[in-house]
Amino acid sequence: xxxxxxxxxxxxxxxxxxxxxxxxxxxxxxxxxxxxxxxxxxxxxxxxxxxxxxxxxxxxxxxxxxxxxxxxxxxxxxxxxxxxxxxxxxxxxxxxxxxxxxxxxxxxxxxxxxxxxxxxxxxxxxxxxxxxxxxxxxxxxxxxxxxxxxxxxxxxxxxxxxxxxxxxxxxxxxxxxxxxxxxxxxxxxxxxxxxxxxxxxxxxxxxxxxxxxxxxxxxxxxxxxxxxxxxxxxxxxxxxxxxxxxxxxxxxxxxxxxxxxxxxxxxxxxxxxxxxxxxxxxxxxxxxxxxxxxxxxxxxxxxxxxxxxxxxxxxxxxxxxxxxxxxxxxxxxxxxxxxxxxxxxxxxxxxxxxxxxxxxxxxxxxxxxxxxxxxxxxxxxxxxxxxxxxxxxxxxxxxxxxxxxxxxxxxxxxxxxxxxxxxxxxxxxxxxxxxxxxxxxxxxxxxxxxxxxxxxxxxxxxxxxxxxxxxxxxxxxxx
Length: 479
Known about the structure:
- The protein is 41% helix and 21% strand.
- It is an alpha+beta fold.
- The protein has two domains: 3-240, 2-Layer Sandwich (Nucleotidyltransferase, domain 5), CATH 3.30.420.40; 249-413 and 449-479, 2-Layer Sandwich (Nucleotidyltransferase, domain 5), CATH 3.30.420.
- A seven-stranded mixed beta sheet has the order 18-19-17-16-20-21-22, sandwiched between helices. Strands 3-2-1-6-15-14 form a six-stranded mixed beta sheet.
């Protein structure tokens, strides 16, 4: 039996699975990541420390298989957009910028001039944001120009990890979207942006399709991971498109709710213009022959929820278990308490409220925000006929049931918290030739699904609460 290793490098953790070619998850592994934050907006991390965590996860997975020669390929999905400069010897020149870093606010215009936001979105696939590599590189051009000029490689953390595994520089077209330097439809680097930043194309990794073999595991990486030298390393995808693969969300009319640091809605769409026209984050997904992906995001919503849990409910390593138990013990509607997680994390004011009601209201508030997004998409002609939820919250109770009740639609979970890693393993299987494409892999693997049905007795309550929530949200002017 052949096996694949799929990794999902998230903002808060590295997750991995050992997947048989038949679709059985033989092992899982998990390691937390570490961000270094300061009061001046710096959010960064050491790329080599992240690599060490990746290696640890791979080694732990490999150790569960008596015959490691049966592991024929590995692939990586990631929450990318983290910028890194590398010197001639292949070592990082500074800590990596996290996509959460805020120091580059306002620096794009100083370097790039006034960019047309619509043209940027059409070109790169994502709306113009000042917290991703285009902004990080603009900050470096303003504040550390000599460092940028000396860099042998300008990359993201995912490319660096792949380089350390294989000795080859490369990036998939999905992850490259977060770089903001790729012409997404051409699948190549956009020369005018490089010129303004003073970056040569030779400094960047080559762009290839997800599911393409980048190279083979180098001798040193083989020793570090416990895998055989020469094991194929296959290019993966951005984390949410990878999770869509792992959960079987491939067709228009399906919606993936991918719940991590950010909660992201991912729609497969045949027409890229529909994604761009509705200001969705656009991914090449199954191109050139299949659907594009359009994403909306409740950005860093889990961070806001966590702040509220720590401040008003409980701190400590078991806080999420306590959070779930309290939410389950509260009555639907949380006694009339309506909470916008992002707002309450900033404004506070919950002293004296029952912890159980706070927990329930945070879960319900997140579900109301999702419903607002889905209603807006429906009004624009993008309709979800089925919803699949993945990520850590999908394996808890009662949050997924609350989402089903608030949305009023059946909610399916496939591969839960490891859907992104399973999607990577599927791409590894395609890369090494075990399957022709995602559809053939999913047919053969036939992953089990858990379906939650909305409770009709709660429909009126949640409809009324939702209307009040929407009114309050609009009165606040959004976030």
